[in-house]
UniProtKB/TrEMBL annotation:
Any one GO molecular function term: citryl-CoA lyase activity
SUPFAM superfamilies: Phosphoenolpyruvate/pyruvate domain
Protein name per Swiss-Prot or TrEMBL: Citrate lyase subunit beta/citryl-CoA lyase
Organism this protein belongs to: Nocardiopsis aegyptia
Signal sequence extent: none
Annotated positions binding substrate: 69, 135
InterPro entries on file: Aldolase/citrate-lyase_domain, Citrate_lyase_beta/mcl1/mcl2, Pyrv/PenolPyrv_kinase-like_dom, Pyrv_kinase-like_dom_sf
Length: 305
């Protein structure tokens, strides 16, 4: 996977609320998205576009990944979201999040529209990335084609709330196991499917929101499950969730140190001793161990460990 921007914590900010937008500047997240979709009421969407453009142009976002979630391609809002935001603030925008993606065609539409606007306004063509939300049964069945649909793609984002609704899941708590499902993890298949499609195409995989925002321990548990699988980060909805996400999606200091040690030991073993397998303490290392260590070391370096 190439060098992608760090997205351990991705803050969701309702674009219709200028107070929240202002507050977002002070939060230590890797990324944020100004939301024109589900956190923005239909009657507020037009004004919210202007708030988005102003907020991006004003700057003050540090090194964070600056993202806007537009409405999905089946809505009457989507095209104007893209045109207003990118014409107004394309130079101050890193990515667009496209929700409810159900086929590669949705991504092609956005890619083409972005290229047209970039050409018309003199922006670098192809610089603005796309993040695709996979949040219903159709999106999941098409996930490989979606992941391959454009070089602009940077991540696949799991949308648990819409997904649970799309499956008719008998549950009202987003991120928790559905009541009555006592064995295993009801979301394991979905998460692994998205993660595998993302990795097959060099993309990041981002977990969606956990809605009981005051229960930080539960957020941590929910994040730890996807971090363990390999997900790169998670949406955060509240300041309380930010620190937890930044911690959970980075390796522990101990694991990071061990990963660097493995890389050193294995480099020495292959280059100096000309051996492909080597002992480090009581563990045997080979080329696959080096690859695993590279992942942990990469996440640690990105987190500044
Ligand atoms: C996010 O968009 C979700 O549906 O969970
Ligand atoms: Mg959704």
């Amino acid at each position: 996977m190439g060098e992608l921007r760090s997205r351990r914590s991705v803050l969701a900010v309702p674009a219709s609320n200028p107070r929240f937008v202002e507050k977002a500047r002070g939060l230590d997240t890797d990324a944020f998205f100004l939301d024109l979709e589900d956190a923005c009421a239909p009657l507020e969407k037009a004004d919210a576009r202007d708030t988005v453009v102003r907020a991006l142009r004003e700057g003050g976002w540090g090194g964070r990944v600056r993202t806007v979630r537009v409405n999905d391609v089946t809505t009457e809002w989507a095209y104007r979201d893209v045109i207003t935001v990118v014409e107004g603030a394309g130079a101050d925008l890193d990515c667009l999040v496209l929700p409810k993606v159900t086929s590669a065609r949705d991504i092609h539409w956005l890619d083409t529209l972005l290229t047209q606007i970039e050409r018309a306004t003199g922006l670098d063509v192809g610089r603005i990335g796309i993040e695709a939300q996979i949040e219903d049964a159709r999106g999941l069945t098409e996930v490989d084609a979606i992941a391959a649909a454009s070089p602009r793609l940077e991540s696949l984002v799991y949308g648990p709330a819409d997904f649970m609704a799309s499956l008719n899941m008998k549950s009202l708590v987003v991120g928790e196991q559905p009541p009555g499902y006592d064995t295993g993890d009801a979301y394991h298949y979905v998460l692994m499917r998205i993660l595998t499609a993302a990795r097959a195409h060099g993309l990041q995989a981002i977990d969606g929101p956990y809605l009981r925002i005051r229960d930080v321990d539960a957020f941590r548990r929910s994040a730890a499950r996807t971090a363990a699988l390999g997900f790169d980060g998670k949406w955060v909805l509240h300041p309380l969730q930010v620190e937890a996400a930044n911690e959970v999606y980075a390796p522990s200091q101990e694991d990071y140190d061990k990963a660097e040690l493995i890389l050193d030991a294995y480099a020495h073993a292959t280059a100096v001793d000309r051996r492909g397998a080597v002992m480090l303490g009581s563990e045997m290392l080979d080329e696959a161990s080096r690859k695993m260590a590279l992942v942990v070391a990469g996440k640690g370096r990105a987190a500044g460990l």
